[in-house]
Write a structure and sequence with these properties.
Blueprint: H1 7-15, H2 19-27, H3 30-40, H4 46-53, H5 57-69, E1 73-79, E2 84-89, H6 91-94, H7 97-110, E3 120-124, E4 129-130, E5 149-153, H8 155-174
Antiparallel strand pairs: 1-2, 3-4, 3-5
Length: 176
């Protein structure tokens, strides 16, 4: 199967064989990475993703279309009238998991403010212990897979998430 390559990427793909430059042409901005984070967090609907990322509707729509064109996600119709879609990771999108975990680990090590605890602690279901920052489980040494982790947000992160969910809930009520 041939890869679908957009014109902008075509320039990068012709200019260099560097896989980092090519990958950055696909996922190289904060909004794209945050959209992928939300898909891994099992938020599949536009309004959920928008509230949880803080992206504007236009910005989010652009990123979702780009991720779909690049083969990282697929749209699934869940409501015919009016047409509404959910967004789900493809195999290509799910393969971004280790990259997201590496960004998380780096951010937890170098971007936390003094006194902040880890944003989210993961339990590795395979062994039942704290997973650490990965890519291998701190307890059993196994590779951390998305489907084998249970996340427990810190109190501060849980409060932030609850505040965002309240905005989502309020938006849903006001649109009725």
């Amino acid at each position: 199967m041939k890869k679908k390559v957009t014109m902008a990427k075509l320039d990068i793909f012709q200019q260099t064989l560097c896989p980092v430059a090519r990958a950055e042409s696909v996922v190289g901005d904060i909004w794209t990475v945050l959209v992928l984070r939300e898909l891994f967090a099992r938020n599949h609907r536009f309004d959920e993703i928008q509230v949880m990322t803080g992206a504007t509707p236009q910005m989010l729509a652009t990123r979702l279309k780009k991720l779909e064109a690049d083969g990282l996600l697929e749209r699934r119709l869940y409501n015919k009238r009016p047409p509404r879609y959910e967004y789900h990771l493809t195999d290509k999108g799910r393969d971004f998991w280790p990259v997201l975990m590496a960004l998380r680990a780096w951010g937890e090590k170098w971007c936390r403010l003094p006194g902040e605890e880890l944003s989210t602690n993961y339990v590795h279901q395979t062994c039942g212990h704290a997973a650490g920052l990965g890519p291998l489980c701190d307890h059993c040494g196994e590779l951390l897979r998305h489907e084998e982790l249970i996340g427990k947000p810190s109190r501060a992160r849980a409060a932030e998430l609850e505040q965002r969910r309240a905005v989502l809930k309020e938006g849903t009520r006001s649109s009725r």
